[in-house]
Amino acid sequence: MNLYEFEGRELLEKHGIIIPVGEVVRRGDNIADAYRKLGLEEVVVKAQVLSGKRGKNNGIKFCSNLEEVEKAVDEIFNMSICGQYVASILLTEKINIESENYLSITYDTNKKQPVLVFSSEGGMDIEDVAEDKIYKKLLDIREKELAGNLELPAEFLETAKSLWNCFLSEDTRLVEINPLVKTTSGEIMALDAKVALDDDAFYRHNKEAQERAKEKGLDSGTITDWDLFESRTMLCRPATEREIAVQEIDKGEKYYQGTAGKYIELEGDIALILNGGGASIANMDALKKVGLEPANYTEYSGNPPREKVYALTKIVLSKPGIKGLWMCGVVANFTNVEETFKGIVDALDEIKPTYPIVVRRAGPHDKDGMKLLEDCAKRNNLNIKIFGKETSMSDTAQVLADMINI
Amino acid sequence: MPILINKQTKVLVQGITGNEGEKAAKAMLDYGTNVVGGVRPGKGGEEVLGKPVFNTVAEAVEQFPDITTTAIYVPPFAAKAAILEDIDAGIPQINTIIERVPIRDTAYCLASAREKNIQIIGPSSLGYISPGIGRIGVVGGPKAQADEIFTPGSIGIISRSGGMTNEVSWQVRKAGLGQSTAVHVGGDLLMGTTYADLLKLFEKDEQTKAVIIFGEHGGSYEFEIVDLIKNKEYTKPLAIYIGGKFASTLPEGMNIGHAGAIVERGKGAVEKSQALSEVGVMIADRYEDLVELIKPYS
User: Could you tell me the keywords of this UniProt record (chain A) (predicted)?
Assistant: First the structure.
């Protein structure tokens, strides 16, 4: 999960990095109150989005009075930045800057270890900075304390150490400060924060983790509860009801038993229930190739129990305006096709769709699974075509297109 | 000779008393792989499928000092401890099927493994299969299905996706060809064993005449292949499909498909295909086309 700046900077502050004072404004909030609470004349008004270049897209404005702030907030709430919905706005203190720098820690996928990146040319996109102006240092994830052999200007060492603590203890995939400034009064301050959390580490950052810490006599207050972060999507809109509902499916004790919690709502009218992280991506491409547009991206994989697949199917089919359903999966290695199809059949029995349905699937217990589906089709008069492994996945996309275009 | 597995391979299954662990042990035994035993703390002394269960990896290694490979089936929060046990015990090859391992734990294990020259395949890897020789994990599924899909041959297969390892192998078989070894490398951001690592092994393997890769957008592992070919460390024919063309329309930083499939500037399906095409790799437009591209070299 990517964090908004206002969330990320609080994590930085928690680890001792100095940030400017600020106030978050949401749609419908009283802006005058927030401005007065800040108690400063000169402020920066910053759009809160999950990625993209706010500066270049007028998402950051400098204001000197309430009227200007209200105008800026209004403008920003009405823009989309690199295709993303502006969820909230951060008002912060305007800082007098002596120098702008760049500091980040992320994973180098080739070296498979974290890498620290520093540049004295901050404030711009790091990709646009000349290679010789960038300092990179591979770190060893097993080191709890950052070693002192970093070739950074001495004044940034403390910040780098704090950032390493933040990177490790908050289970992040990326922590980036751009710009990391030196103020005219000599303070080192983070004027932005880009943080990506590692969703797979969620169980170390929730109420249960806090309870476990308490039982061990540790300070549970140091554990951030990720469940308190608001739901989000990187698309140009708030997360939809369906997207939020699907996230619940993989929660709970058995979270790792199969994945059935993936749903991205899209503009098209073909409902998709795909299988496998890789095949689903290939099949999105295949669907577009035959001229159909997806209503959603969804895949389940591993060995999810019947209940998970049922919940997922119900949500996928609840979208209005669906013209067809494509359920397409590979020759499964170990997914129990019968068990997962039971969940699908449960949902089809309730919804009884009238639009064309194409199914392609194979794998363990596929004959029994297909039989369940065929019986379900008969009792509900479904307009359905079912294929096994003899027909390739892409070819069944064309079958669906033909059924719809008759 | 295939890669990663041979007739001397001796396998330990961690988490053998669990549902998935037992299923995997059975899948391996059914396929003729030598599973010597399993591990489950607190259940030492029991038996699963007639194989002894040990409390720790160290105990298992004491009994069977020639274990070559371990396959790990434990929940994600127990993954790090399980892998570190293997590294301490010096088991040379670790296959970890576990999905959703925190990246901090993966990086920790990879750093420790590298120091002792231990090979980790995964995380999130369903395993690998050398038709007629054996398999680690559950690639291919039940024996009858595995026999329909896999037969000894000259095509090496590497896939980021477990399902597509099977699917691509099936396309190969349908075209009348066979596989040398098919490897599911896993879809995580950090891969214990990469395309490049495996291509080097396939290069040396006489049985393998050509290789097929199912790749995807995000990460930079496909770019390592470019350097490998430029340095002539891999010289055999190679066909690749890179999924996720549609993802280029999504905002940067968004994650879709596998954990490693993040939308990143310059690392999309199109950019990867282009870079590989320039060094002579055959690019498939649809994954079904991979077989047609590779067939002349089989």
Answer: Acyltransferase, ATP-binding, Ligase, Nucleotide-binding, Transferase
CA distance A119 to A152: 9
The domains of chain A, with CATH numbers, are: 21-93 (3.30.1490.20), 97-197 (3.30.470.20), 241-404 (3.40.50.261)
Residues 152-211 of B with CB under 8 A from A: 159-167, 170-171, 187, 189-192
Active-site residue B217, yes or no? no
Q: Which fold has domain B10-121?
A: Rossmann fold (3.40.50)
Nearest chain A residue to B259 by CA: give it: A277
User: Tell me: the pLDDT tens digits for B145-201?
Assistant: 999 999 999 999 999 999 999 999 999 999 999 999 999 999 999 999 999 999 999
Q: pLDDT class for B91, splitting at 50, 70, 90?
A: very high
Contacts of A204 in chain B (CB under 8 A): 102
CATH architecture for residues B151-297: 3-Layer(aba) Sandwich (3.40)
Query: How far is B170 from chain A, CA to nearest CA, in Å?
Result: 8
**Span A260-282, pLDDT tens digits:** 778 999 999 999 999 988 899 99
Encoding tokens for residue B228?
């490998």
Closest CA relative to residue A24, chosen from A46, A53, A54, A56: A46
CA distances from B157 to B70, B166, B201, B290 (A): 21, 10, 12, 11
The interface residues of chain B toward chain A in range 202-231, judged by CB-CB distance below 8 A, are 214, 216-217, 219-221, 224
